[in-house]
Every structure is written in structure tokens, then in C-alpha cells.
Design goal:
Strand order of the largest sheet: 1-2
Radius of gyration: 33 Å
Structural class: mainly alpha
Order of helices and strands: HHHHEHEHEHEH
Helix content: 55-70%
Shape: flat
Oligomer: single chain
Length: 152
């Protein structure tokens, strides 16, 4: 008998998204006097859901024009900074934006094959990089922080 109840519940669970048939079954079990109240209650949540969907559509429409605007670069990243003597031996002695310094640093790392073979997130420092980093091996995420100390 327990299996029959479970079997009866499973199809009802699958039909849960279709609200109208489930409401009719619930109304059929109740006495005739309560049918109009049950139908009205069933219609109100549906109306709220429909109303909730309309503002969501408006929000999506509002987001589209914002996505079309051109993205402005952050001025702090584009400010030319002078590298220290240790960093200048790698990226050059002219003032460069922070983004360009990191780009040239990565070019130097890849040219010298200084990335760890097993864990690519680690950078094995040579003599020039050891002066900048202060240690033999650096995680790529802490690299920019260490380089930032050498920029003015």
C-alpha cells in the first residue's frame, strides 16, 4: 500500500509546474461551498507570478542599453609609473603604466622559461627577478603586489 501512495505522489510532483490541473483536483475534494474560494485563491498566486515576470522583463530591457555603452579604462591603471633600478633591468627605465609593466614582466618570464613546469602558477626567479621579488619562487598572484613596491 505504501508503494501505491508513492507511485501516486510521483506523477503529481512531475505535474507541479502545471498549476491549473492541480488546483482542480484540490477543489474537487472539497465541499461545493468552498469551491469558489479555492479557485479565487488559486488565481491570485498566478496573477502575482505574472506581475512578477513583467518587472523582470523591464529590468532586462534596462540592462541592454547599459551593456552597449563603451567601457572606460580606469585612469589609475594607465598612469605612467617609474620602475626601480632592479625592475628597470627587466622592463626598461622609461615610465610605464602598471598594465604594461606586468605585460613586459610576463614576456620576460615566458622568454626565459621561468614558469614552474609542474605548477604553472609558480614563477622561478632568476637573478634579476630575485632582486625584484626578494625570494626564489613566487606565486603569480602575489607577483603583482611585489612588483608594485618597485613602481613610483
Amino acid at each position: 500500500m505504501a508503494t501505491a501512495k508513492k507511485a501516486a505522489r510521483k506523477p503529481a510532483a512531475k505535474k507541479a509546474p502545471a498549476k491549473k490541473p492541480a488546483a482542480k483536483k484540490a477543489a474537487a475534494k472539497k465541499p461545493a461551498a468552498k469551491k469558489p474560494a479555492a479557485k479565487a485563491a488559486a488565481k491570485k498566486p498566478a496573477a502575482k507570478k505574472a506581475a512578477a515576470k513583467k518587472p523582470a522583463a523591464k529590468k532586462a530591457a534596462a540592462k541592454k542599453p547599459a551593456a552597449k555603452k563603451a567601457r572606460k579604462p580606469n585612469a589609475a591603471f594607465m598612469k605612467a609609473l617609474t620602475p626601480s633600478a632592479a625592475l628597470a633591468s627587466i622592463v626598461g627605465d622609461k615610465p610605464l603604466p602598471r598594465t604594461e609593466v606586468v605585460k613586459r614582466l610576463w614576456d620576460y618570464i615566458k622568454k626565459g622559461k621561468l614558469q614552474d613546469a609542474v605548477n604553472k602558477r609558480l614563477i622561478n626567479a632568476d637573478e634579476k627577478l630575485r632582486q625584484v621579488f626578494g625570494k626564489a619562487q613566487v606565486n603569480m598572484f602575489e607577483m603583482t603586489g611585489l612588483v608594485g613596491k618597485h613602481l613610483k
